[in-house]
Sequence to fold (287 residues):
Amino acid sequence: MNYRHGYHAGNFADVLKHTALGELLRLLTAKDKKLFVLDTHAGAGGYDLGGEQARRTAEAETGIVRLAAAPRAGMPAPVAHYLAAVAAYDRKFGSSGGAWRHYPGSPRFVRAALRPGDRFVACELHADEALALKREFAGDRAVEVRQADGYKTLKALLPPPERRGLMLIDPPFEAADEFERVLRALRQGVRRFATGCYAVWYPIKDAQGEAFARAMAAFRPLTLQLALPANDTGKLSACALAVVNPPWRFEEAMREALPWIAQNLGSGVTARVHAPPASAPVPASPA
Ligand SMILES: C[S@@+](CC[C@H](N)C(=O)[O-])C[C@H]1O[C@@H](n2cnc3c(N)ncnc32)[C@H](O)[C@@H]1O
Fold:
């Protein structure tokens, strides 16, 4: 396990994932019913954009840094909420204006949305990242941090007693069988908890990613894609978030937010939203 999210924090993929995550949480917490949230691959919880890892790749420059400079007029609400969440996190460190230095990881977006009575489990397998995550939420009883395998935890905790849940599955995709593991976990999850909302992030870079997208179609997700202009640096330039059982109005919000994000991330950036065909039969048990 070599992956460290600190090298990628705040990049275009995080912009897509965290804007959508914030909107999912906003919609799912609008109902006066308890929510369970599981972040299977949580990372360190927060990142220093001025630190060595982030500076080495400068990926935030084509992500959050660009978006932060975008005009506020006409900004879709999910993007405004996302930027407000980043700004609020940065302020925790005593920053007072200027460029944001501290970028929140997915558990921070979840934590900011939790209401009393909601439940949140954040899993991270890597020892150093798990320690950082524990420190990030030290003394915060609303967040249960587990140094554990996110896939096994997903299987163990579903269905949740709350009967309403959001599961974020955001692996590093460095292992050859990661796509297969995600599909297996999703099948197990849906079998145990068919009405849960599952958000799965994945890279689009080769035939394996395309085959994965085809396999994912069995779950009839709403798929959000964001792509930077193709580059020959070997860096990831396209990714997707597939959302199974999205809440009402999520698609509408993302259809407005995504093109705006693409436009403001720079020329040549493209966004797409794929909804499952309305007439397709819902499979009884995704294969
Ligand atoms: C893409 S990063 C997570 C980023 C985070 N979700 C965010 O948006 O801020 C993936 C993380 O998964 C961790 N990881 C790898 N395999 C894991 C597993 N089987 N279970 C839990 N965590 C794992 C890695 O150490 C890494 O920190």
